[in-house]
Structures are given as C-alpha cells and as structure tokens.
Specification:
This protein is an alpha/beta fold. It folds into two domains: 220 residues, Periplasmic binding protein-like II (D-Maltodextrin-Binding Protein, domain 2); 239 residues, D-Maltodextrin-Binding Protein, domain 2. The chain contains 19 helices and 14 strands. A five-stranded mixed beta sheet has the order 1-3-2-4-13. The protein has a five-stranded mixed beta sheet with strand order 9-6-10-5-11. Helix 9 runs parallel beside helix 11. It is globular. The relative contact order is 0.19. The N terminus is likely disordered.
Length: 484
C-alpha cells in the first residue's frame, strides 16, 4: 500500500503568454562527443511507437552535474568505457537518429536546478525545454507557474511501464501530472532504502538462512532485534562500548526511524477518497507500536553504535561495517555501492516488516532527494520535448537500466544470487511518503527522535499535528489541480 500521491494545479496562462527566448543567466554547455566510443552490441529494441520526424530540432535538457550520482543524461567522452556512461551515449544516439533531433545537455548542480528553472521561466526564457528538479522543489515551481502540465502532452505515454507507475499512483490526478520519474533516471533506484548485513557475523550467529527468512515473509522488526541483540561484543574487554567493539546495528538516533515506521505500515500520510492529501488517523497506533519496536534497537547503546558518538561519525560507521564490527546497517542503494572494496561478504535485505502478517515488504524511496522530469512552461517545443523524453525513457530499459542493474549492481553491490533477488523485492516495493518528502510541520525530525523515548511519541505528534495539517493543505492545494 503506497503512502502518497502528487496532486497538482495548472500553470499560469499569463506566464505562458510571457514566455519568449533568451536570458542573461550563464549556463555551462556540455560539449558533444566527436565520435561514438561505444558501438551497440545488440540490435536496439523495436520502437515503442511511431514518433514524428522533428526535422533537426534541438531539445535542450538541464540535467544534474553532481558527481556522486550517475549522470543520467550526460555522456562524458573522458569516461568512455564506463558501462553506464557508454549506455547513455548509445541511448541518446538512438533517440536522436529515430526522431531526427539533436539533444543538447546543459549541466547544473542538482540543488540549483529548480532555481535556474524559476529564473528562466519568470524571465520569459525559452532556451531550456526540460529541467530535472528535485521532487521537494516542485511545489514552488507549480506555484510560480513554471511547469507544463504533462498530462496535456500526448507524446508522453505516461501509462507505459518505462515511467514509474508506483510514482504515478501516488503523484497523479485526473487533472494534472507535473513531474515524472522512471527508467530515464537512476536516482529512483539509488534512493531506495534497504538493510545490508555482514555475511560472516550473521552466519556465526546461526542465521545462515536469513535469505530464506526474508523470502518467507518473516524478516520483521522483532527478527531484526533478535539478531542484532545477539551480536554485540566488548571485543577489547574494557567494559566500554566504543568504536573498537562489535555492534548489532549502527545509525543516527533519529535517522531512518520514520523509514522503519513507514516500511512497517505505520505511515501517517496518504490520500482520501478524493485523492487529496490526508492525515491517516487510523495508522497512529500502528506507527506508535512500530516506533516502540524500533526503539529496542535504537535505544540500546550496547546494540546500536550511535553514529554521532563515533570519532569520525559516518566514516567510522562505514569502516566499522567493512571491518566486520557491525552486523547490520540501513542505507540507500547508492551508499551501498561505496562498499565495493569490502573484503568480507555482505548481503542485502529489504527493510523489515512490522510482523509476518504484513502483506508485503515496503521500500521507502528518499523522495526528498529524488530528481524528477519536468517540461518548462515556456518551452516552444513541447511536442518534441515530450517525444524525446518518452523515447529516452523507452530505450533506457535496454541501455542505461541494463548497465545499472545487470552490471553496476550485480557486479559491485551484490555478492550472491540471493542478494540480487532481494533487490527485485526492494524495487518492487518502492513507495513515497509526504512527511519525508516535504518535511510537513517539522514532523520528520521531531517524530524521529522519539525513537529514543517512545513515550513521547503521542505528545510530539499532537504538538506538531496542526502545523502538519496546515502544510499539507497548502501543498495539496497546489498539486491537486483544484484551481485549474
């Protein structure tokens, strides 16, 4: 069961009429590679549908340049030979040739893309057709009339599986779709939260069948506590638990506490029968019970190495896991890739269920950091932009997705077949949650810290609830299309 939906209003007609071309804002252009560095090794898939011939038009995309993420649109000639980079080139070339277009990429820091978009559109600058702002910034872009209603673009086949239907179930109404995610970008996979474990420690504790436990639907909060509580050791015998000892788990006190709660079907926001943002009063008891279960790990310093108390915080936590001093930790898929140099075997599990009666595993996507696809309200090439995006998303399945999943994940992140199967479960269970994405009412941090003292959960919730409802009403009104 998914927790949220992205609702929407129409962009300002007055603003649309003001759109022209040209602005004084400097942009860094990506140079086009002179020659292909990669030849397709297999025939491309048959076209999804017939796209028009755009007679050499240029579609310009502002894409993120942040180096710690995959560059989903940007081919770098200096990285020729890198599987993902070469797949980007192959895909982009397919689309350019089939549609008779030129794809031009403008790079910008991901945290600045929404600011650039607002500045360009408000200045009437139509030089950029497509922007990739982070999800949490889209409300302000809608409010300013900067984004085109994608549901009005027939060239975008948003019901097809190359666009994330999990996302659209949550972020779509019959009036509007303001942004998309899907196969065209890897961040939706990078930002899935899962559990990673040290294989040696788990085996030594007698849980060699941990994959079977998960496959049977019995990977629960209680099972996680059972395992973690048996694996803490005072390795140097000084009666002080510190970075020199062994722990069952590591994280920050409040970090991911709400993610555990949400994945245990304790999420507090969702949709009402009209598709509007709503507070799920019926889930409060479940949420509180989940926090109480989580606190058995988070609240016990002999089980959890609290990251803020380690000498080098996150670096220490990562090194302790790599060194076999921590049995389990939770992380997004991207951060797990940093463990590629780990000597000891490790494996991947979904986030635990509340109990074994919970129907499915849930994998919360860190929506607050998620990149999205939007089309500028000023674009003078909306149809071409829609076709290019749709074709890029379609061809991604056989190019960038293959490179990401089959090569990057299988070759680096996973050490065994079972972990790869767990990744399927994780990606199938992805969902989004409003409090995490939009930080409504300051609830994310305030409620998270109650994991150290679950008795304060209900009072904290009541204290923050009015602000949460007010924020939710404002944002929901923007996204719902109520004013269209």
């Amino acid at each position: 069961m998914k927790a949220t939906q992205f609702l929407c209003i129409l962009a300002s007609l007055a603003l649309l009429s003001s759109c022209g071309s040209g602005s004084d804002i400097p942009l860094t252009q990506q140079s086009e590679p002179e020659t292909s560095q990669t030849e397709p090794t297999t025939d491309p898939p048959a076209p999804a549908m017939e796209y028009p011939d755009y007679d050499g038009q240029t579609v310009t995309i502002m894409a993120n340049s942040t180096p710690w993420l995959n560059k989903d649109f940007v081919y770098d000639p200096e990285q020729a030979g890198s599987a993902f980079n070469d797949a980007v080139y192959k895909r982009n070339t397919m689309v350019e040739e089939q549609l008779n277009v030129k794809i031009e990429i403008v790079e910008a820091e991901r945290i600045a893309i929404h600011k650039n978009m607002a500045a360009h559109v408000l200045a009437g600058d139509a030089s950029i057709d497509v922007y990739t702002p982070q999800l949490y910034t889209v409300p302000s872009l809608i409010e300013q009339g900067c984004v085109h209603n994608l549901i009005q673009i027939p060239e975008l086949h948003i019901d097809e599986n190359w666009w994330s239907q999990n996302f659209l179930k949550n972020f779509r109404t019959d009036k509007a779709v303001w942004c998309l995610v899907g196969d065209i970008m890897s961040s939706i996979k990078d930002l899935n939260i899962c559990t990673v474990f040290n294989g040696r420690l788990i085996d030594e504790a007698g849980y060699e069948n941990i994959y079977e436990i998960a496959a049977d639907g019995k990977w629960t909060l209680d099972k996680m506590y059972e395992i973690c509580s048996t694996l803490s050791r005072d390795l140097n015998g000084d009666s002080v638990m510190d970075e020199h000892d062994q722990y069952g788990y590591t994280h920050t006190v409040s970090g991911l506490a709400l993610t555990f709660m949400n994945c245990a079907d304790g999420y507090l926001t969702g949709l009402d029968e009209n598709g509007d943002f709503t507070f799920l009063e019926e889930n409060v008891e479940r949420a509180h019970a989940a926090i109480e279960k989580i606190s058995k790990i988070y609240g016990d310093p002999s089980i959890m190495a609290e990251i803020s108390k380690l000498p080098d915080t996150w670096t220490s936590a990562t090194n302790m896991f790599k060194n076999g001093q921590v049995a389990m930790r939770s992380a997004n898929i991207y951060n797990i890739m940093k463990m590629r140099d780990m000597v000891e075997d490790f494996g991947i599990l979904p986030m635990p269920k509340y109990d074994d009666t919970q129907e499915n595993y849930k994998s919360q996507v860190l929506g607050n950091m998620l990149d999205t696809i939007t089309i500028s309200a000023c674009s003078e090439k909306v149809d071409a932009a829609g076709s290019v995006l749709d074709a890029l998303a379609y061809y991604s399945a056989d190019t960038t997705v293959k490179a990401y999943y089959d090569i990057t994940l299988e070759g680096i992140v996973t050490r065994d077949k079972e972990s790869l199967e767990m990744l399927d479960i994780i990606f199938e269970g992805e969902f989004f949650e409003f409090i995490e994405i939009f930080r409504f009412g300051g609830m994310y941090d305030s409620l998270g810290v109650t994991v150290a003292d679950p008795g304060k959960f209900m009072s904290t919730l009541e204290t923050r609830k009015a602000a949460l409802l007010a924020d939710m009403k404002k944002t929901g009104g923007l996204f719902s299309g109520a004013e269209s």
